[in-house]
Amino acid sequence: MANTILAILEQREGKLKKSSFETASVAAKIAKNLNLTVVVVAIGNDISNLEEVSNYGVSNVTHFKNNVLSNYSSSAYTKIITEYAKEISADYLITANTSFGKDLAPRVGIKLNAGCLVDCVKLDVQNNEVIATRPIYAGKALMETKLNSNIKLFTIRPNVFKPEENKVEYNLTTKNVDNPDTSTIVSEFKKAEGKLDVAEADIIVSGGRGLKSAEEFKLIEELADALGAAVGASRAVVDAGWRPHREQVGQTGKTVSPSLYVACGISGAIQHLAGMSSSKYIVAINKDKDAPIFGVADYGINGDVFEILPKLTEAIKLLD
Amino acid sequence: MKIAVCVSHVPDTATKINIAATGNEIDQTGVTYIINPYDEFAVEEALRTKEKEGGDTQVVVISVGNDANKETIRKALAMGVDSGILLKTENKMDSFGIAKALSEEIKSQGCELVFMGKQSVDFDNQIIPQMTSALLDYSCVSVVVEFKLEGQNITCEREIEGGKEVVSTKLPCIISAQKGLNEPRYASLKGIMAAKKKTIEEKPAVETENQTEIIGLKKPPAKAHGRILGTDSSAVPELVRLLREEAKVI
Ligand SMILES: Cc1cc2nc3c(=O)[nH]c(=O)nc-3n(C[C@H](O)[C@H](O)[C@H](O)COP(=O)(O)OP(=O)(O)OC[C@H]3O[C@@H](n4cnc5c(N)ncnc54)[C@H](O)[C@@H]3O)c2cc1C
Question: Which of B127, B142, B165 sits opposite A116 (nearest CB)?
């Protein structure tokens, strides 16, 4: 029998997250290269868009169902995944490096005696082995690495692997879970007021100390609104209390790789660059022509944010 | 109760990282080390919990590494931690190895509550707290920004995409600390003096075979130098055009 790769999906509020399609698609690709069977697993109550996963080259879906499991429970989820991986003798496991995947994967790794390589930005198959590339030192270096354990677990950085469409048959197996171990469980989700989270956004508009005050940050918010982007911030601005910590980008904030990152009034300290320099396109607006942010920017305007931002927002709003 | 706090010794975040000639580690020239920034939140929360619990509650700091780690252990002692343990090794352990060494020590110390930083800012794995808990069969809540202990019951808030999860669990437990959990105290002069007198117990770390193998390190590809399009808003139309037609991101 062929070896197996188990792809772990993530649902939130009854819907698969976009990163789950990335997981499925990468699993399908590795399976093709290593001649593996893919099994996909999701845990939760009703999952409205579960079938969509079959658009990304994976057919066999197992849904562990119980209404208390609509919220994440590290104890229950670890047990279910571990037992299922043993049952199907999974040789590889893969999931997304989201808050969920980061929390769950290492626990499953220990229970299965599987090595873990997390936050991978590249997975290549060479001589029947998976070679992973992952950023270290907040992206100041890249490490090529592999696992020597029998069972191997990988988590992939969200937004890096493009899901490849490949519609296949959909075979769903639903298993009801009796008496899940909910000794550790999420009882409530407190949504943040902001619309989009920097970790999940495709476009981020970030502001730094150059914005001068919390009030002036509305210039950042307006541009973000016009672009459908998330608002980000430098640590200087978070420490000053102008913005909440969850918006901080950088070595002690979030590491992001959106397709577009607009840095306004941010100098580009090494700790900030570490969190955003892997963005696909970077725009910098700064009045200091020597600001290090220009060193990583694709396009820059060397001028005053208060003069430029309103005009930029206006121009974006005029686009169709 | 005995509380453990685990700390790692990492390159200063302002350090420029270069690759050593061997190709599979960083060049140590000019690299200064600090206590992992997230571990300061862990130390602070351990101390606050001790102050709240009172009685004979003790906090012990544990670090896996070599003699250099003593500096980081001393930093925690200066903040007010009672005693320190260095689990000594000259080997380069992976996260699994470190989790294994920590779990053995936590077990032998009988600590039922453990604080760690959510990640070490060197390898950025963010997995040791969860791994250690799985090895010990402890509960674990990661990326915590609010922590409350009442008897055996723990309620935490953990930061996730787009908000916070309220998590309930019980002791024994490992908490991984995120920025926002607290404001770490500065070590007082008295604390620094007292830390010099505290002994750091040294013992060999339990060694395990690494599960991961480093093939090589490299610098990320350097970005081609960008274009400065102008010095005021007259450059906006060109910027919008490039974003649309060249970058195709808007
Ligand atoms: C342990 C540690 C961890 C850290 N982690 C992080 C992290 O995760 N994220 C992070 O961001 N930082 C982090 N830092 C802090 C970092 O070193 C910088 O202090 C911080 O990023 C600076 O923020 P800033 O760019 O907003 O401010 P500044 O460096 O003060 O830069 C402000 C910029 O605005 C420009 N400016 C001013 N007025 C205008 C105007 N009218 N128009 C246009 N431009 C203008 C200036 O030219 C300047 O370049 C960390 C530091 C340490 C020690």
Answer: B127
What does pLDDT average to in each consecutive run of 10 residues of chain B (250 residues)?
Answer: 97 93 95 97 98 96 98 98 97 97 98 98 96 98 98 97 96 97 96 95 97 96 86 98 96
* pLDDT at residue A278, rounded to an integer: 87
Which domain covers residue A244, as residue numbers? 203-319
Q: Do the domain assignments include residue A187? A: no
Residue A207 maps to which CATH number?
A: 3.40.50.1220
pLDDT in tens, A169-223: 999 999 999 999 999 999 999 998 877 899 889 999 999 999 999 999 999 999 9
Q: For ligand 1, is residue A251 a contact (CB within 6 Å)?
A: yes
Residue stretches of chain A with pLDDT short of 50: none
The range of the structural domain enclosing residue B70 comes to 2-204
Report whether A294 contacts A283 (CB < 8 A): no
Distance of alpha carbon A119 from alpha carbon A102, whole angstroms: 8
Q: How many domains does chain A have?
A: 2
> A235 C-alpha vs ligand 1 centroid, how far in Å?
7
User: What CATH number corresponds to the domain at position A111?
Assistant: 3.40.50.620
pLDDT at A217: 97
Mutation site, A92, A107, A200, A239, interface B, largest B CB count within 10 A: A107
* Helix (H/G/I), strand (E/B), else coil: A171: strand
Buried b (16+ CB within 10 A) or exposed e, A68-77: ebbbbbbbbb
Is B213 among the domain residues?
Answer: no
Q: Is residue A57 part of a domain?
A: yes
Whether residues A42 and A120 share a domain: the answer is yes
Contacting B residues, span 190-229, partner chain A, CB-CB under 8 Å:
209-220, 223, 225-229
- Please tell me whether residues A137 and A220 are part of one structural domain: no
Shared domain for A152 and A263, answered yes or no, is no
CATH number of residue B25's parent domain? 3.40.50.620
Residue A155 sits in the same domain as residue A280: no
Chain center to CA of A223: 23
Domain count for chain B: 1
Distances (CA, A) of A129 to A34, A35, A96, B139: 8, 12, 20, 33
**Quick check: B244 and A200 CB within 8 A?**
no
From the list B166, B212, B225, which residue is nearest A190 (CB)? Answer: B166
Q: Is residue B22 part of a domain?
A: yes
Minimum CA–CA partner of B156 in chain A: A186
Q: Per the domain annotation, does A190 fall within a domain?
A: no
Residues B66 and B89: beta-carbon distance below 8 Å: yes
B-chain residues within 8 Å CB-CB of A307?
232-233
Measured CA to CA, the distance from residue B68 to residue B74 in angstroms comes to: 11
Asked if A16 and A164 sit in the same domain, the reply is yes
Residue B44, min C-alpha distance to chain A (Å): 17
Angle, vertex CA A121, rays to CA B145 and CA B161, nearest 5: 25
Name the residue of chain A whose CA is nearest to B250's CA.
Answer: A227
